[in-house]
């Protein structure tokens, strides 16, 4: 799978959509909605699993391909969304990591455990 980089994948997705005249439907609103639906389909796979089962989900030959497909769908819609809005997805991620590193510093040894950022909706 040589040549796999974000720009190449975005170009392939854009070409795929253009060849099918889907451009008019790939508005930011529609792509955000589709992204949400695909993320929900990923969540659905894990909905009733225990934490232990969810950690082993890729060991199940019946479930692993479904998880990979949903991850691909989420990433595809995210990349298309970023392409339409002109967002450099890697730069946006790097900037967010830097902000989170400043917001959630590493605790001093023996200090209080840091607040879990997954509990914050504004991440």
Kindly describe this structure.
The two termini are 33 Å apart. Helix 1 crosses helix 4 (64-85). With 123 residues, the protein is mostly helical. The longest helix is centred in the middle third of the chain and has 22 residues, at 64-85. The radius of gyration is 18 Å and the shape is globular. The model has no long low-confidence stretch (mean pLDDT 92). It is built from five helices and no strands.
Compute the number of strand runs: 0
Q: Please, what is the average pLDDT?
A: 92
Cα-atom radius of gyration: 18 Å
Largest sheet geometry: none
Strand content: under 5%
Tally the helices: 5
Q: Which features characterize this protein?
A:
123 residues, mainly alpha, 5 helices
Topology:
Elements: H1 6-19, H2 28-46, H3 51-55, H4 64-85, H5 89-103
Helix pairs in contact: 1-4, 2-4
Question: TL;DR of this structure?
Answer:
With 123 residues, this protein is mostly helical. It is built from five helices and no strands.
């Amino acid at each position: 799978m040589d040549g796999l980089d974000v720009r190449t994948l975005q170009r392939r997705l854009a070409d795929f959509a253009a060849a099918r005249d889907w451009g008019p439907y790939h508005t930011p609103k529609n792509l955000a909605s589709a992204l949400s639906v695909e993320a929900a389909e990923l969540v659905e796979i894990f909905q009733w699993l225990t934490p232990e089962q969810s950690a082993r989900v890729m060991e199940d030959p019946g479930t692993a391909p479904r998880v990979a497909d949903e991850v691909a769908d989420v990433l595809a819609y995210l990349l298309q969304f970023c392409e339409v809005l002109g967002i450099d997805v890697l730069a946006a991620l790097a900037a967010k990591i830097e902000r989170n590193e400043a917001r959630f510093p590493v605790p001093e040894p023996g200090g209080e455990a840091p607040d879990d950022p997954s509990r914050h909706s504004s991440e």
